[in-house]
Design a protein that fits this description.
Blueprint: E1 5-16, E2 19-30, E3 34-38, H1 45-53, E4 58-65, E5 68-69, H2 75-80, E6 83-86, H3 98-104, H4 112-125, H5 127-131, H6 142-154, E7 160-164, H7 172-189, E8 192-196, H8 200-206, E9 209-214, E10 217-223, H9 224-229, H10 231-238
Parallel strand pairs: 3-8, 3-9, 6-7, 7-8
Antiparallel strand pairs: 1-2, 1-4, 4-5, 9-10
Helix pairs in contact: 3-6, 6-7
The protein binds adenosine-5'-triphosphate (ATP).
Length: about 240
């Protein structure tokens, strides 16, 4: 049976003012896949995620989710349809407790039993968050904040999770924990993952497919292992 497409971008142009940062991006994210988008600083990786989540409008091209165009669909409605963005810098609310931060991810969901069950899932996977559930977000380490940011996104019942540099500035052990969480979200809940990373090896180690973005264009789409083994591509676009 054919794999369904979770997200499809077709000639997407988007950016800031007169100056597009994406110059016609084509991208297919299969349902249940982990797709890593890699590329140098300024390649347009964050812009790509902002455009998919609806924070930035497209000036040309189209984004489809499960075959339906997202043109004109506002951010909140995209979240309800299961597209949830975990932005750079782990934006947890410092004044709120861990538990309150988690609850924010599920504000629009009505069923308290379901919310409690989801919270328990997050705590089970990240016991450090369970221990700190009544502490303020401001007291967490960088790694714990990242776990909380992903946990909060999970609370929204995403179909597709968009992650912007979750490994940035974290110790290798913590990065490994975060990556296993993403693998678990896919395995256990069939969540499709679109992961943007500068940490290329880390991202490719859990991804099925690697996409190289350069100056706002997709220059390669390959099975992750193949991409990692391609010296020429690595030298040209990834700097290692
Ligand atoms: P980084 O890892 O540095 O965030 P990136 O691949 O995510 O890189 P983007 O942040 O998407 O790249 O940036 C793509 C281009 O858009 C760059 O030329 C950048 O300078 C520009 N850009 C990013 N954010 C803005 C903004 N808020 N206003 C104007 N230009 C921006």
């Amino acid at each position: 049976t054919a794999v369904r497409t979770a997200l499809a971008l077709d000639g997407v142009v988007a950016g800031y003012g007169q100056d597009p940062a994406l110059h016609g991006v084509d991208l297919v994210v299969p349902e249940g896949a982990i797709v890593a988008v890699v590329g140098a600083n300024g390649a347009g990786k964050s812009t790509l995620l902002r455009t998919i989540s609806g924070l930035l409008p497209t000036s040309a091209g189209d984004i489809r989710q499960d075959g339906l165009s997202l043109a004109g669909v506002p951010v909140e409605e995209r979240i309800r349809r299961g597209i949830v963005h975990v932005p750079e810098r782990r934006q947890v609310i410092p004044e709120l407790t861990v538990e309150e931060n988690l609850r924010l991810g599920a504000l629009w969901r009505r069923d308290p039993a379901e919310r409690a069950a989801d919270t328990a899932e997050v705590y089970e996977f990240f016991p450090a968050l369970a221990e700190r559930r009544h502490r303020a977000g401001s007291t967490l380490s960088g790694g714990e904040r990242q776990m909380l940011a992903i946990g909060r996104a999970f609370m929204a019942h995403p179909k597709v999770m968009l992650l912007d540099e979750p490994s940035l500035g974290l110790a290798p052990k913590v990065v490994a924990d975060i990556m296993s969480m993403l693998a678990w979200l896919r395995a256990e809940f069939s969540i499709t993952v679109l992961l943007v990373e500068q940490n290329v090896r880390t991202a490719l180690s859990i991804a099925d497919t690697g996409v190289v973005l350069n100056l706002g264009r997709v220059v390669a789409t390959r099975p992750a292992a193949e991409l990692e083994a391609d010296e020429q591509l690595r030298h040209l676009y990834l700097g290692f």
